[in-house]
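pls ignore typos typing on phone
iron/sulfur cluster + seq
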Amino acid sequence: MYTISAPPHKKSKFNIKSLNWSKIFALVPVALAAIYLFGVPALGIILASMITAVVTEFGIQTIFKQKVTVKDGHAALMGLMLALLIPPEAPIWLPVFGAFFAIAIGKHIFGGSGSYVFHPVLVSWVFIRSAWAGPMTPLSTPHITMLSELIIENGAGLLVGASPLALIGGVYLIYKRYVDWRIPVTFFLAVFLFHQVIAFVSEIVHLVQEGVLNPLLYLASMFIFLEVPGDISYAAIGVVFFGILFLATDGPTSPVTKKGRLIYGLICGLLVSIYGLFGNYVDGTLYGILLGNCVASYIEIKTMPASFGQECWLEKPYNRIVGIIPSAFKFEVVTDE
Amino acid sequence: MESKRLDKIPEKIVIPLRQHNGFVCEALVAKGDEVLIGQKIGDSSEYNSSAVHSSVCGEVLAIEEAAHPDGNKVLSIIIQPSDSEETVPFTPAKNPSKDALIELVKESGIVEHYGSPTHTVLKPRDKKIDMVLINATASEWIGGKYTNAKEYASQMIDALKLLMKAAGASKGAIIIGKDDSESIEAFEGVEVDGKKLLVAPLVGKRRLDHYFKDQESNILVASQKRIYGKNILNFFTYNVTGRKVAIDQNPTDVGVAICGVKSAKALYDAVYEGKPYYETVITLEGPGNCPEYMLVKLGTPFKDIIESCNPGEVGKIIANGVRTGVAQYTDEVPVTKGTTKISLQKPEDVLRDEAEACVHCARCVDVCPVDLIPSRLAVMADQGRFDECRQFHIQNCIECGRCAGACPSKIYILQLIRYAKNAIGMAYEDLPAKESSNLKLGCCGGE
Ligand code: SF4
Ligand code: SF4
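k done
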């Protein structure tokens, strides 16, 4: 007897389970750093949140007679991610409620795995942040003053702030191609070049207003990109990296098209920077990405690729211009049909 | 490159009277007749059809419907082979003319492995061919038939010239794989009309036209990334020549004829040795001691080939590759002109995964060679939104199966896409007739 089935007959071993569990493993270092820095309360928050998330998912799927999928690690991942966004001083019922809210409302109301529009962790975080602003406000806003603080923070606000460097696991995921590079890269660039670009533009505007005609001065303003702005110390914190590497790269809430992902990263970066400029980067990251979620599907629809062999949106204007140029000026190889 | 000849004489040989996607042949022999190697046993007066020949000496046991590796049943001639090696006399053709070549291709039963009889590719009705391509990207040299690489290269060039002559084309090229160092070495510096050719890499916008100019030759050898899939011709043509083939057309509409290494070799043999197409080289893959390549007679049942490599217990037999091939329900199916590869899987390696919800991880998008959004197509196909599939260029899909292979949710993307393509094919008459497929749909007036 031979099995018959539709092709392909060989697939990659990689599945949903490995995707989620690899993300959980990538978050273990930062969780350990948080426990090291904040002690037992941090451990309590992480455990409470993860257990509640898993139990909630199990409960909901049993009640509604769905296939129980707690083993794929998605609920546990959501629980862990939420815990990392809670300050260590928070009472223990806060993560419990938050995790319940994330799974029940954020995930399952929207249709479960893969169907939600907003990241469940962000939905829940925004809810508990607004409902219990007191306990959800960290004692201090983190801010890197020494390089060593990248390794272990002193006055970090949320659990995830304990050690920006411990989030290196996320970079490893990108390196291993478990997570695509497009969103994190443009997001990162947008956040960290935002201030330089603003400084550069204002410098140019300034020069123009003064009526400077020397082109060298304009060129010289390019050097602004080499200066490290002071604001960077506010941006180089755990929660920003966490947002870039783990929150923004979540599949259902980001576009699937290649171009769309680049644009999405950029937009998230801009939103975060604007928030960060006027408020702080902790809230800025989380609200920024949530807003990014809103436009994700719009970006996706607008960036659907054309049929192969057709011009893309950049080629179109290019070809139009090239079409106007008389062929005598062109260096193309002309075919001899 | 070594290849093994299958020494064992099979108990019976099954020769389908249709080994291409044209018209089925009529049998020229009857039950009880004796046949010789190379004897023509099936032919058709239709243009879109190609003769079949016996690959063994023996007695015709029956003419009946038998299993075919594409999943359907086809009228076949079943022969009980004897151990005689007697052949019909082979007469090489001396400097044949264009029309004689076309006739020879049809008479020798040469067909492309993707289904079209070669003469219909070289000389399509009402169309003019000006360029012939030999796609050698996915193919081994026809192992065993060559003693060394240079011989392979020079024979391929000769075969290309024959093909160009038959098609009346002025230009021709052999396309080899970029990472296939063996072939590149074989072709580097091959002489054509006293000129040494360099293997031209097709990168970016540098397509064949550029090199025809650059190397001042009408015959080229070019290399590019390997493309595989069930439906690659249009994409291949675009990549190699830059000519865009409309969705409802095929490469001959833009004047390009695409042949495989096997049909090129078969034509070479037919012209210089007078031999018809009755032997082929297939690739083997699986447990046990499978040789990589094996020279077999057309019509040999898979069973005999599998037994010769002692694979142990077999759970799945796949014809033509694990990515896109057809799983066989029986090992009685014969090797046909369309068979390129047999893959075996142990029972424990057979996939049994269940599809889960799409998590929009975009892996399928990243692997798709023709820039589709497979995840979206799969959802729309599943919901029967075929018109929308069409707007998202579903017809461009080359059916390579990469998307389904990469999906962590194990969604049957390729199957869903084929389902939609088939349904669209039946609903719109401006699309080309579907090549033989083992899918039969209960949708849109399907069978
Ligand atoms: S949609 Fe899938 S099968 Fe079709 S070309 Fe893209 S990757 Fe290949
Ligand atoms: S690879 Fe699978 S899970 Fe990922 S986006 Fe494509 S269909 Fe969805």
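The radius of gyration of chain A is 24 Å. Residues 330-337 of chain A have pLDDT under 50 and may be disordered. more later
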